[in-house]
Structure formats: C-alpha cells, structure tokens
Amino acid sequence: MPLGQSLTPEHLQSADPAGVVLVVDQDDNRPLDPRTAADRAMRTLEAIRLLDELPQACRLWVARPGEHVDPTVDALRGVLRTAAYECPKVAASLVEFSDSTQPAALARTLLHDGPPIECAWQGTGFSVLRLVPGAPETTVTSPPEALVRPDGSYLISGGLGGLGLLTAAWLVGKGAGRILLLGRSLPSAEARAKVEELRKAGADVEVIQGDIGVAGIAEKAVRKAMSARLPLRGVFHCAGQLHDATIARIERPILDTTWRGKAEGAWALHRATTGHELDHWVLFSSVASLLGSPGQAVHAAANAWLDGLAAWRRAQGLPATSVQWGAWSQVGAGQGMAERGVAMISPTEGVDALERILGAGYPLVAYSPIDLAQWTAPYPGAARSALFARQLGDRQGKDSGSSLPRALRESASDAERQVLLEDHITDCVREILGGTSLRITPRTSLVTLGLDSLNAVRLRVMLENSLGMSIDGGILWTKPTAAGLTDWIMHRMGYREEQPA
C-alpha cells in the first residue's frame, strides 16, 4: 500500500498476512520538504507498532522506486534500523528498485524470510547495504586554503550547548574572523563563562537567542553573522533535542519536537544560506542514524534525514558534510551512554576528528569508538541484521542456546515450572538494572524498581530469546510482576488451560 496512507487494523483483518509492503510514492517535481519526511516516518512507526502487536510474525517492507537522492528515504532507514532492536519479529526492511527492475526479481526479494535487510535493484544488479571494517585516514594532506578564515564569519546553531561551544572554541583557535552562536534558550552560567573566555582570547563572538526550527530565525542569524561585513564562510548545525521513547510509545508531538530542531532547522539553514559561497556546511548527526538505537527511533530518523540532506546538497554542487558522531564524554546528550559500556569520544579527540574530516572533504563520516558486538549483544535480532554481517562475522546474533524451554518441558509440575520462570525473570531484571543483589520477589512491581520503557524492551527481547517465543509488547505493563509474567507465559506455552485474569 502507498506510504501516503496509514496502515490500520482493518487492513489486516481480512487476511493473515506474512508481510506488508509500504511503497514510497515518488514525485521528482515535488520540492524537498522535511515535513513530508516526518509524516512518512510517523506512518512507518505506526505500521511497525501495529505489526508488532500481531500474534504471528509479519514482516514489513518499505519499497522505494527511483534512483535519485531522497533524504526522506534516509529518514526511514533510521526508523527501520531502530525497529530491529525493539521489534525484531517485524524484520523491518527496505528495498529500492528502478523502472528496469524485473517484477519477478522484486517479488523474490519481497519474499525474503531472513533477518532485516536494506537492498537495492539497479537494472539486473542486486546489492545489499553492509558496514565494512575500516576507518578514515589518520593523516590528511593540508587543503590548498586554510580550513578557517580570519576574514570570514561562522554560524553555529545549537551554539550554546556543549558541542556548539566546543566547535566555537576550535574556530577561535583556528583564527575565525567572527562567530555567531545561535541558541534556543538563554545561555546558562556555564555557557556565558565559556563565551567570555572566547572573547578574552580576542574572538568576535555574538550570541543570539532563537529556535532554528522556527520560520525566519535562520535568516536572522545569517544576517547577524555577517553584520561585521565579513562573508559567511561556514555553518555548523549542532542543534537538536533528544527525547527517548520506544516505538510503542512514540506519539506525534515527540516526533515534531525532535524534527523541528534537527531536520527543519537544517532545512532552514540550507534555504537561508543559498547563494553564499561557503567553505563548510556541517551537520552534527548521530551514529544512531547508522546503527539504529533502542529507544531513539525518532532521533535516528531525524539524524538520518540530515545525512540524506548532505548527500542531496552534494548532488546540487553545494558543500555539505554530515558527521555521525558517537557519544561524547563531558558534553552532548550522550554522556550517559558510558553507563551502558559505550566507549566515549573525548572533547579533544572529537575536535581533532572534526578537523581531519573537514580537511579530507568527506561528505558523510561515522565517527564512533563503539564496540558493535557489545552494543548489539542484548539485541540478537538487531545483531542478525544484514547491515552488521561483515562487522560481526561469527559473533552475529547467535541464539542464546538457552536450556530453559527444555527444563520447563521436563519439569514435574506447573509449580516447578512457575519457580523456574519466576527465577529466570528476576535474574533478567537484575542484569538489566545492574543490581545482582537487588531483592525481587515474584510480586514485586518491576516498574517501581525502575523498569522504564527502554528496559522493558530489553526484558522482552531477553525473554523472547531465552524462551524461543514471541511476547506481546504491552504485556510487561499489564503484568508488571514476575508472577504475572510467569502466569501469562505459561498460558502461552500451553502449560495452563485458562489465561489468568
């Protein structure tokens, strides 16, 4: 069905589908619009949510005709990649095809029954998107002109946040003529102190308050940046708001808030700087757009739209670089990722990487020290994605080899099975919450222990993997105790005739 329409339960009532195909409607004459991408991302999220609630596995395909660069499709990649973590039984996948693609070949692709895949037909050629080991060169030949000009001005959106101020300090160190910091809110005391440090170092720094996603703010910022009669030479889009929410709980206001700062803000900067001879037009994206990130589908989609916009600008002959940053230490929204064992980018390392990336002229770079095997370990469905096949190799999404189903079958009574399951559930919760000595009884509310929506996704995935069965996403909220979950699971496994109330 067209992605311009919403998938509803009524579409699924007349059949027992093994899969659903959403076709991206293409109109080469339609102007690029981030709101269109937001609408399609929301419909895709709703479709994934609906299919994930079905008792049987039902695969989702997003099919995209045409071969031109389309940031809207890139935004959908962010959604699909995150779904691999949160909704693995949907196996959300993407196929691109052209007018010359044979219908039979496309049909074979849509009948694929493996892990999530992003693939494309180009004529008779078939390709699969995969990450490959490698890294940018560690040394870059100096460009013919300096990266930063003393006779140029530079605009930083999100300029009063940690990453924006770091970028400003780097520009000052490189001799930038003028810097304008655009921030959605008034500067904090820490931000004011940083700005004063830059000014004491001799920098011409101006602060302006405004939401980059609001009409007219980008144009105002560009005029302000050039008020000293220095030409605008660089734009750095560091703005954005991070709202964690699982796919099951994403509503349109959450998407709109994230989209306004990231995608609409970037588009506003594109329009406001058209006609300026820029050296750099830089988007601070996130590695979530490349890898997906549980609890961050909207964040991944909005940043993936940035990546697509950079490619689109390059196709128009305009400068653009999108950097898919990993989590930074000390600054940025990802500081808490260290608690999940994620290696962090230090400010010194990140600024050095930015300089090398700009010097090399890369259009799109992912920069993250993340251990992919560790990152995907709690989510075997995501680890099995074709995207990670070459990176993970033999470590890719192996089944847990759990002996629990066999132990349940061989148990002498339901009472014994109940104890096994309750103990297993509480062990999983302790692992997720990081408290091996945490006291949990079968009647303890898991919610009061701190099991939020993201941790609930992890618990669901762990139980599905160890039990070899599908578990309804909402059951963790209607049965929020080990005893309640055990009763529900035993019914689903056929050990009890009647489902408990």
Strand content: 5-15%
What's the shape? Answer: globular
- What integer value in Å does the Rg equal? 25 Å
Structure classification: alpha/beta
Strand order of the largest sheet: 8-7-6-9-10-11-12
Number of domains: 3
CATH superfamily of the largest domain: NAD(P)-binding Rossmann-like Domain
Uncertain runs with pLDDT below 50, 5 residues or more? none
Count of helix runs: 19
The end-to-end span amounts to: 38 Å
For this structure, the CATH topology of the largest domain is: Rossmann fold
- The CATH architecture of the largest domain is 3-Layer(aba) Sandwich
Please report the first level of CATH classification, the CATH class of the largest domain.
Alpha Beta
Helical content, roughly?
A: 40-55%
User: What's the β-strand tally?
Assistant: 12
Overview of the structural elements:
By secondary structure, the chain is an alpha/beta fold. The chain has 3 domains: 9-129 and 380-391, no CATH class; 153-374, Rossmann fold, CATH 3.40.50.720; 404-492, ACP-like (Non-ribosomal Peptide Synthetase Peptidyl Carrier Protein, Chain A). 42% of the residues lie in helices and 13% in strands. It has helices at residues 9-13, 34-52, 71-86, 103-110, 162-173, 189-200, 217-225, 252-273, 288-291, 297-315, 347-360, 372-376, 380-383, 389-392, 404-410, 414-433, 453-467, 475-478, 482-492, and strands at residues 19-23, 59-65, 93-97, 118-122, 125-128, 153-157, 178-183, 205-209, 232-237, 280-286, 321-325, 364-367. The strands form 2 sheets. Strands 8-7-6-9-10-11-12 form a 7-stranded parallel beta sheet, with helices on both faces. The chain has a 5-stranded mixed beta sheet with strand order 1-2-3-4-5, with helices on both faces. Helix 8 (252-273) links the parallel strand 9 and strand 10.
